[in-house]
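User: Predict structure, ligand adenosine-5'-diphosphate.
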Amino acid sequence: MSDLIQLLPDNIANQIAAGEVIQRPASAVKELLENAVDAGATHVRLIVNDAGKSLVQVIDNGKGMSPTDARMSFERHATSKIRSIDDLFSIRTMGFRGEALASIAAVAQVELRTRRADDTLGTFIEIENSRVRRQEACAAAPGTSIAMKNLFFNVPARRNFLKSNAAEMKQIVDEFIHVSLAFPDIAFELNANGQEIFMLQKGNLKQRIVQLFGNGHAAKLVPVGEHTDYLDIKGFVGKPEAARKSRGDQYFFVNGRFIRSAYLNHAVMSAFQGLIPEQTFPLYVLFIDLDPAQIDINVHPTKQEIKFEDEKVVYAFVQSAVRHALAQFSVTPSLDFELDPGIQQLGAVSRPTSEEDRTSAGNGRLFQTFTQKHEAWKVEPSGNLSGWKDFYRPLPAAEAAFHPETSGADAPSAQAYSQATPAPAALRLPDEITPMQVQRSYIVFDTPEGMVVVHQQLAHERVIYERLTAALDGKPLPVQRLLFPVSITLPPADAALMQELIPELRVLGYLVEAGGQDSFLLQGTPSDLKGGGDGAEIENLLESYKHFNPSLTCSRREKLVRSMAARQCIKAGSHLAAEEMRRIVEELATCRQPTLSVGGLPTYVNWRSDRLDAMFFR
Ligand code: ADP
Ligand code: MG
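Assistant: Predicted complex:
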């Protein structure tokens, strides 16, 4: 019998190893965003197509790479971030294993373009299946652009394993949120299939939270901040009254890295105990920073888990920091935040250094702090609020962007999509400015701040939606009587449906009369609707109504209004005259919720001139 063991060919071994790091488009998103952060970028742009299956591209204005480094970066275990094993214990960068780019190159087609600011020429490298196809000098903006195309083109089994676009996109948005929350001083953009989903300007953490989750949160955030020699915590928790039924926006970061920890989550939840009803979840975005030597860095980077040297201390610290914050902002009835007795016995926590400290610990408005690593816990008088000022700086006027009404919409995560959009002041279109149509889809005009780009269809759909809603709320729309009523005959099931909808349709401008045995007479149509005069329109409407997204639970009337708005709005691709554009913009500006489409997407983008400047690295 011959021997059985063989060495795997390099490319197969590579693909297997790569699969550990790059499991789906979102893994590449995470790695590429982190590399951009590590490279010191101040502006990072993420572009995805087909939920990252066909393209994930990250463009940064970071330090770039030399031609040799550019080539080296795709080798396995090639990293500029650690040199010796000791470095592992003081690592502050997001990456350090040197696996990400090698993995991406093993399972996709990759194009790298990079230039260091001081070099005149940059480097272009095309690589696929771990093999370099092309490397040449090229012109490039300072920084790095890495495009990963056709993920798993060479590993069909893995490609088939990917989930639906909506599911993959949700994961991408999650990774984007994690990195952008961790680095609010970096501007991030997310563009999916040509649509700007997020444009996050640099700012402080509070601003970033509001940009991501909506302006509704601005007044509902309580700052958390405790500083000690051993570890720091900072961030925000939502006020108890803002807690929601779904466990959504809860984020922990340790040394800038997003982690999942049921244990620390428990610490926060216990601080909220008694303040929120069962089965509701407060928002939190909390950053713990500590000496990297205190955490086990060897946990695999894609696992989002972490091991602390002394978990219980961290638990106690998080719990009391959150309690303290809630107390400080008078959202809890009392100021005392006693530690769990078990935890109090831990040496690191429970050793007041002197009798004096012991007495001061008993005095009213005090808060605890760990002063020495693994050593004493000392009590200092009065909260030190100085560091919190930054978090409380007022925000530039921003309009409510997140609206609960849209939270169940069919976008992968309508809430995540809802970006903080600037005040509708941006929608003020002065008489002397003539709007321009771009791609027969966008209305663009100059503003004092920069330019505004309105999506004609999403905007008009919003306008119609609000008009129809108002109609059902008691302002019936005018009906244009038809000279020659149209007779409509429907299959029995549809006829029953039509019969049910007649009263609502009447209010919405359609005058329908029952005409016996599954047939109807259309007597009038909305007077401001062009070409609504034939029976086909109302049959189509019925069709859309029937096939209305079943994953959305909404009332009959909401379904009807949404279907009708979707049908009646001006579509992308239709030519608009200047007056029509103006009307859409003006009507949008008067909407109650001008910033979001009915499905929760942005209706317009306020492209401030500093954003334009940044695109040209000015
Ligand atoms: P790691 O981040 O763990 O070092 P990667 O495979 O992600 O490994 O990247 C390899 C190396 O390529 C990095 O150490 C860094 O030197 C370089 N690199 C990767 N992305 C960028 C970027 N966007 N800008 C500058 N250098 C980069
Ligand atoms: Mg990396």
